[in-house]
Amino acid sequence: MKSFARAALAAALLVAASPFAGPAAAQGTVKFGALYPFSGGLALLGDESFRGFELAVEERNAAGGIDGKKIEFIKGDAVDPNQAVGEARRLTSVDKVSAIFGTYSSSLSLAATQVTELAGVPYFELGAVSDPITERGFKYVFRTNATARDFANRMVDSVIEAVAPALGVKATDLKVGIIHEDSLYGQTVSGYQKTRAKEKGLNVVEVLPYSAKSVDLTPVILRLKSAGVDVVLQTSYQNDTVLFFRQMKDQGYKPKAVMGAGGGYSTRDTMQAVGAENMEGALDVDFTQFNTNPKATPGLTEFVAKYKAKYGIDPRSGHSLANYMGAKVFFDAIASAKSTDADKVRAAVLKVDIPVGETATGWGAKFSEQGQNTRAQPFLMQWQGGNLVTVFPEAAAVAKLKTGVGAN
């Protein structure tokens, strides 16, 4: 009897001493939050982003979890910033998660991370692009994906390096129009676009904000048309992207190039709503998509197969892939920390060193003191024949850039 008691006490002490000790660990799990917009206007890409995280969890659990503990996640629905705050509070204070993963939308991420930082809980951003997310001096906020500045710079540089050469003209001879929805997403990207365009000497003739909830973008299109804009740079969600293409056709406006900053430009749903013939030739600077050279994106082909096996359809955008890649990087970091203690996790994240070209997105991973991955860069894609194919840089490309937008 005494031997049994001593054995029981020893087992209890081992559990208490475990770096994953606590209610979740006692049940053999590590508990995380999954905070995404699962309903409302952002739900399509919110759910698509979550699917990548979910696949990463399943893959990790099949391989034994983290330090032998299975990953359990609790979903939080962040429809707007206020709800993001409320759900982040619930996940950290009621559900006692060890970390939160998310979130796709910058405004939601900015709100939720204020809660988690005060609570001392790591927050792993896998999709939101607004630069301030990792520029506020927070210790426990980390992001794997590229920022709005990266997107804006790639868009402006693509006008110079890809679009102008394809058109056979000087980039400085092209009239550029910048249009954007007026939330944090659009404001941030367009701001960097204006700065980069000025640095590069591009001729920006219009900068036009609008509400993403707008039901009529005709005034924006007529301004672009009357100014003779050759290249349109748009930062938009799905509904306003669809509206822009439909009304651009209605007004007979045919610029030489239209380029989006991810968002609505990246989804098959947008292409299907607009019509493949009308979306033909549209450019998209974005997270890595699925028609990309697999030599530059090891693991991409396997990811697509897993996605189709689980959800019965092709991936709807590269957001799922970005979340899958990011979650895997952070799972590895937490495992190497051998603890869910926030300071130990931070130290482990800052030690991550993955070269470019060694993940399924083609990105590498190396984090600054601010928690930003400095090895994530968006690619340039184009809608061709109903598919979004990578056209730049050359190492990742599977097709040549074509000129013109829409049916001729």
Automatic annotation (TrEMBL):
<protein>
    <submittedName>
        <fullName>ABC transporter substrate-binding protein</fullName>
    </submittedName>
</protein>
<dbReference type="InterPro" id="IPR028082">
    <property type="entry name" value="Peripla_BP_I"/>
</dbReference>
<dbReference type="InterPro" id="IPR028081">
    <property type="entry name" value="Leu-bd"/>
</dbReference>
<keyword id="KW-0029">Amino-acid transport</keyword>
<keyword id="KW-0813">Transport</keyword>
<keyword id="KW-0732">Signal</keyword>
<comment type="similarity">
    <text>Belongs to the leucine-binding protein family.</text>
</comment>
<dbReference type="InterPro" id="IPR051010">
    <property type="entry name" value="BCAA_transport"/>
</dbReference>
<feature type="signal peptide">
    <location>
        <begin position="1"/>
        <end position="26"/>
    </location>
</feature>
<dbReference type="Pfam" id="PF13458">
    <property type="entry name" value="Peripla_BP_6"/>
</dbReference>
<feature type="domain" description="Leucine-binding protein">
    <location>
        <begin position="29"/>
        <end position="386"/>
    </location>
</feature>
